[in-house]
C-alpha cells in the first residue's frame, strides 16, 4: 500500500472529519476542536494530491486526559479547614479514590497539595495489592504512596515485608526487606529471600541487592544482585526458591535431596540455564545442566541430563549426553477444550549394565479438559503415539496408546477415580530406563480427607495381560504448611519388590 493510500485511510479513520477548505493548506476545524493540518500540493494535471499527515500533531490534538478521581473520606470525627485545605480524621477513617483504599484510625493531610499522612497502623489496598504498614503518605494526585514499614501482598503471589517502602506507577520499592510466597508466610516464614533495594514489578520480575536465601533461621545461600521471575504463566519461578533442597526417600535410591534452578541468561528471560540435582544415599549425585531457549514455536533445550525412569516404578537412571530436546507449544483446537502436546529428542544414552548408544524419538498426545458428566463427576480421554530409534542392537519401538480417566466426588471428604490404559507396543527398547510396565492396565483409587491436614488414598491396579494385581498403593498426604508430604507404600505381588516412596513438594512453585 503506497503512502498516499495510507494517508487517505488514516484521515478517514480519525474520529472527526479532516478536510482542506481550499488549496492554501488552511487549518480545518469541527466545532471548536482544532484538527491536524493536511498539506496539499498541485499535481501535474492540476489536481490536488494528498500527502501524509503529521501523526504526532494528530495524536496531540486528540489526546484525552481523564479527570482525576475524587477523594472520598469518612471518619467518626472529621475536621476540614477551608482556609488552607487542612483535613483531619479520627476513628474508623476510610479514604477511597477510584480503586485505592486507605483504612486507619487517624489521618491528616491537605486538599491543596493532595497529600494524606497516617502516622499509625493502616491498611492500604489497590486493584492489585493488599498491604498494611505505618507512616503511610498517600498522594491522591498520582496514586503513589510511601510507607515507613510495609507488610502484605504485591500482586497475588508475592509477599513482602520491610522498611522504607514506596509504590510509584505500580512498581514497589523496599529499602530493606524480605520476599516469600503465599503459603510460606509466618512470623518467620518457612523460606524467604532477604535483600536491600528491592524493586518489584508485579507480574513480571523483582530485583534485590545483597540477597540471602533462608530456611527459617538458617541462611542457605548468599548472593549479590538477584533477579527473580514473577510471570507465573510462563512457569518460570524464582530460582533461589526452587533451589531449596527437598528431602526424598525411596527403596531404590535411599535417602536424598532434590532441587532445581532455572536461571535467566538475558533480560527478556527467553534464554535460561536449567540446572537440576538429585543427591541420594544409594545412587550418589545426579546432575542435569541444560541451556533452554523459549520461542513462540516451542522450547529448545541442549545439554547434559541425568533422568529417572517415568515409564516404570524401578527408579532406573539414564545419563543423556549430549541431548537435544524440543517441546512444542500446547496447541488448542479453538474453544473445544481439546489440545495437543508434542516433543522430540536426539542424543546419546547410557545406563548401568547397558551399552551406550544414540537415541532419537518423538511423541504426540491429544486430550481435553475433563468433561462434566453429572454432579461432581467428570471424564477425560487421551490418545497418543510414540516412536523411538536406538543404535544399540538397531532397536526400534512403536507405541500407539490411549486411555480414559473417570473421577467422582462422593462428598466433600470422599472421592474415587477409575482408569484404563492400553499401549500397543511393537518392537523393543534395549534400555530398562524407558521400558513400559504393564502396557494394558486398569485400576481405581479411593481417597478420604481425615483432617484438614491429612488425606489417605488407596489405589489398586490390575495387569490385563497376566490378570494379576500389579499394584496396591497406600498413600498418606500430609499438609506441612508451605509443603506437602506424600508417603506411599507400594505392595506388589512379590514381597521383594515392595517399596516406600516419600516426597516433599512445595505448594507455590513446581519442579
From TrEMBL:
Keyword Signal found: yes
Signal peptide: 1-20
Gene Ontology cellular component terms for the protein in this record: cell outer membrane; transporter complex
Annotated keywords: Signal
Coiled coil: none
Source taxon at top rank: Bacteria
Protein name as it appears in the record: Organic solvent tolerance protein OstA
Amino acid at each position: 500500500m503506497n503512502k498516499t493510500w495510507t494517508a487517505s485511510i488514516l484521515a478517514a479513520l480519525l474520529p472527526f472529519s479532516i478536510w482542506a477548505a481550499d488549496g492554501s493548506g488552511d487549518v480545518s476545524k469541527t466545532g471548536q476542536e482544532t484538527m491536524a493540518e493536511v498539506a496539499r500540493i498541485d499535481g501535474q494535471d492540476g489536481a490536488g494530491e494528498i500527502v501524509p499527515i503529521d501523526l504526532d500533531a494528530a495524536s496531540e490534538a486528540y489526546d484525552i486526559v481523564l479527570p482525576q478521581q475524587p477523594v472520598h473520606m469518612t471518619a467518626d470525627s472529621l475536621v476540614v479547614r477551608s482556609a488552607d485545605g487542612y483535613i483531619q480524621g479520627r476513628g474508623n477513617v476510610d479514604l477511597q479514590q477510584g480503586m485505592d483504599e486507605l483504612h486507619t484510625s487517624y489521618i491528616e493531610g491537605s486538599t491543596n497539595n493532595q497529600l494524606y499522612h497516617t502516622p499509625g497502623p493502616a491498611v492500604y489496598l489497590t486493584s492489585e495489592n493488599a498491604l498494611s504498614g505505618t507512616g503511610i503518605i498517600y498522594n491522591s494526585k498520582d496514586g503513589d504512596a510511601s510507607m515507613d514499614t510495609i507488610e502484605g501482598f504485591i500482586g497475588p503471589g508475592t509477599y513482602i515485608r520491610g522498611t522504607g517502602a514506596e509504590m510509584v506507577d505500580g512498581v514497589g520499592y523496599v529499602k530493606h526487606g524480605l520476599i516469600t510466597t503465599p503459603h510460606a508466610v509466618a512470623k518467620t516464614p518457612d523460606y524467604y529471600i532477604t535483600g536491600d533495594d528491592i524493586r518489584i514489578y508485579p507480574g513480571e520480575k523483582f530485583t534485590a541487592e545483597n540477597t540471602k536465601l533462608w530456611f527459617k533461621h538458617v541462611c542457605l545461600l548468599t548472593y549479590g544482585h538477584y533477579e527473580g521471575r514473577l510471570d507465573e504463566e510462563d512457569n518460570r519461578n524464582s530460582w533461589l526458591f526452587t533451589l531449596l533442597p527437598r528431602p526424598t526417600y525411596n527403596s531404590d535410591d535411599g535417602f536424598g535431596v532434590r532441587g532445581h534452578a532455572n536461571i535467566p541468561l538475558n533480560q527478556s528471560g527467553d534464554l535460561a540455564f536449567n540446572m537440576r540435582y538429585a543427591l541420594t544415599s544409594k545412587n550418589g549425585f545426579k546432575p542435569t545442566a541444560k541451556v533452554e531457549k523459549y520461542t513462540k514455536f516451542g522450547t529448545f533445550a541442549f545439554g547434559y541430563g541425568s533422568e529417572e525412569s517415568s515409564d516404570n516404578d524401578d527408579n532406573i537412571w539414564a545419563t543423556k549426553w549430549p541431548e537435544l530436546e524440543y517441546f512444542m507449544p500446547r496447541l488448542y483446537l479453538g474453544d473445544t477444550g481439546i489440545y495437543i502436546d508434542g516433543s522430540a529428542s536426539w542424543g546419546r544414552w547410557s545406563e548401568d549394565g547397558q551399552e551406550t548408544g544414540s537415541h532419537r524419538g518423538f511423541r504426540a498426545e491429544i486430550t481435553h479438559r475433563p468433561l462434566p458428566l453429572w454432579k461432581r463427576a467428570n471424564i477425560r480421554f487421551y490418545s497418543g503415539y510414540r516412536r523411538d530409534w536406538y543404535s544399540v542392537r538397531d532397536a526400534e519401538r512403536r507405541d500407539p496408546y490411549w486411555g480414559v480417566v473417570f473421577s467422582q466426588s462422593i462428598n466433600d471428604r470422599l472421592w474415587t477415580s477409575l482408569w484404563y490404559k492400553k499401549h500397543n507396543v511393537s518392537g523393543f527398547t534395549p534400555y530398562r530406563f524407558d521400558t513400559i510396565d504393564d502396557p494394558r492396565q486398569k485400576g481405581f483409587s479411593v481417597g478420604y480427607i481425615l483432617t484438614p491436614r491429612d488425606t489417605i488414598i488407596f489405589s489398586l491396579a490390575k495387569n490385563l495381560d497376566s490378570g494379576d494385581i500389579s499394584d496396591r498403593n497406600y498413600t498418606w498426604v500430609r499438609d506441612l504448611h508451605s509443603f506437602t508430604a506424600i508417603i506411599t507404600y507400594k505392595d506388589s505381588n512379590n514381597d521383594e519388590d515392595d517399596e516406600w516412596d516419600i516426597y516433599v513438594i512445595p505448594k507455590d512453585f513446581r519442579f
